[in-house]
Amino acid sequence: MGDLATLLLLLILFGLAGAWLTLSRARDRAIFEARSRCQQHGLQLLDETVGLSGLRLRRLSGRRVVERRYSFEVSVDGNDREAGHLWMIGQVLTALVLPTIELYTPEQPAHPAEQATLGEGGNVLPFRRRAGDRDPRH
């Protein structure tokens, strides 16, 4: 009986170590994404770090997946601190919120009519109605 308890304890410890390594790699990826997006938008990533601030279940292609939210602080001109957030599923950035900038990765490719309104290099994403919402024009 003692050998079974020892084996179970080792399996639990290996599982915890594996989870810690996976989350550590995901956090490193989140730091990379935050740093590159801040540089892209002319912002300064303060403290050069992000922190896990939330988890949520999200339905993606009919499957439920865990989406992690990381929070960090940025500065526009070096004299202020503004909150920034990014969401990731695995190693993929799914959403980004910076001061005055909100970028969400669409779950499906945009329709050709929607892409025509974006134009080349545009930074405006069209609003999509949720299922069940009625047209506000009627």
Account of the 3D structure:
- The chain has 138 residues and is an alpha+beta fold.
- It has one domain.
- Helices cover 33% and strands 36% of the residues.
- It is built from two helices and five strands; from the N terminus they run αβββββα.
- The chain has a five-stranded antiparallel beta sheet, covered by helices on one side.
- The N and C termini lie far apart (71 Å).
Write the layout of secondary structure elements.
Elements: H1 2-40, E1 44-60, E2 63-75, E3 82-89, E4 92-98, E5 101-104, H2 112-118
Antiparallel strand pairs: 1-2, 2-3, 3-4, 4-5
Pfam family, one: DUF3301
InterPro entries: DUF3301 (IPR021732)
Region (Disordered): 108-138
